[in-house]
């Protein structure tokens, strides 16, 4: 069962692996990223960041969707991580589950504006998040479990 889908452009790193493990007590992480799935070195680095006893799968979006629909995962507590809102939207279009989406770290860059602490978004990111919200999926903005989660809808009204 999917516990949460997190948007974090760094994908799997210590903060994601350990702080969210303490909160969600997941036993599997699925990284849905076409780029990461096709980068052997990046996959190896993510394996080193994975907490002991936690299964890790780094897949393309389509392969991640197939894995997440596997009945064997129903008994597992799965934490899904995607690099951006568009990837989450693509994934949600392929799976029946509608878990909470956690908007975490997204770095600044060309065409991006500050949305909340540690989250910079482009117009394309906002359009994808709005589409996810329109699906009736709850989106929270939260860097780490020790910080207060904020409602995407509330922040979006101010943006």
How are the SSEs ordered, and which strands pair?
Layout: E1 2-7, H1 14-24, E2 28-32, H2 34-37, H3 40-49, E3 55-59, H4 61-68, E4 78-82, H5 85-92, E5 101-103, E6 113-116, E7 119-121, H6 123-134, E8 139-141, E9 150-151, H7 152-158
Parallel strand pairs: 1-4, 1-5, 2-3, 2-4, 5-8
Antiparallel strand pairs: 6-7, 8-9
Helix pairs in contact: 4-5, 5-6
Subcellular location: Cytoplasm
Pfam families: PTSIIB_sorb
Protein name: PTS mannose/fructose/sorbose transporter subunit IIB
Describe this entry's structure for a reader.
- This protein is of the alpha/beta class.
- The chain has a single domain (2-158), classed as Phosphotransferase system, sorbose subfamily IIB component (Fructose Permease).
- Helix content is 38%, strand content 23%.
- The protein contains seven helices and nine strands, in the order βαβααβαβαβββαββα.
- It has helices at residues 14-24, 34-37, 40-49, 61-68, 85-92, 123-134, 152-158; strands at 2-7, 28-32, 55-59, 78-82, 101-103, 113-116, 119-121, 139-141, 150-151.
- It has a seven-stranded mixed β-sheet with strand order 3-2-4-1-5-8-9. A two-stranded antiparallel ribbon has the order 6-7.
- β6 and β7 form a beta hairpin.
- The mean pLDDT is 95.
- Residues 1-159 form the PTS EIIB type-4 domain.
Explain briefly what this protein structure is:
The protein has 159 residues and is of the alpha/beta class. Helix content is 38%, strand content 23%.
Described by the principal axes of the CA atoms, the overall outline is: globular
Regarding quaternary structure, how should these chains be classified? single chain
Strand order of the largest sheet: 3-2-4-1-5-8-9
Task: List how many beta strands DSSP finds.
Answer: 9
């Amino acid at each position: 069962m999917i516990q949460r889908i997190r948007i974090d452009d760094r994908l799997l790193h210590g903060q994601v692996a350990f702080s969210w493990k303490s909160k969600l007590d997941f036993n599997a992480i699925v990284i849905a990223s076409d780029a990461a799935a096709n980068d052997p070195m990046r996959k190896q680095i993510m394996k080193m960041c994975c907490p002991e006893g936690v299964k890790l799968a780094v897949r393309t979006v389509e392969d991640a969707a197939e894995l997440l629909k596997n009945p064997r995962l129903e008994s597992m507590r799965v934490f899904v991580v995607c690099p951006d809102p568009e990837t989450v939207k693509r994934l949600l279009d392929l799976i029946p589950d509608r878990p909470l989406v956690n908007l975490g770290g997204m770095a600044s860059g060309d065409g991006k504006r500050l949305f909340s602490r540690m989250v910079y978004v482009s117009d394309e990111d906002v359009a994808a998040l709005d589409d996810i919200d329109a699906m009736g999926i709850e989106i929270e903005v939260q860097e780490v479990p020790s910080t207060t989660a904020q409602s995407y809808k509330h922040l979006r009204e101010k943006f």
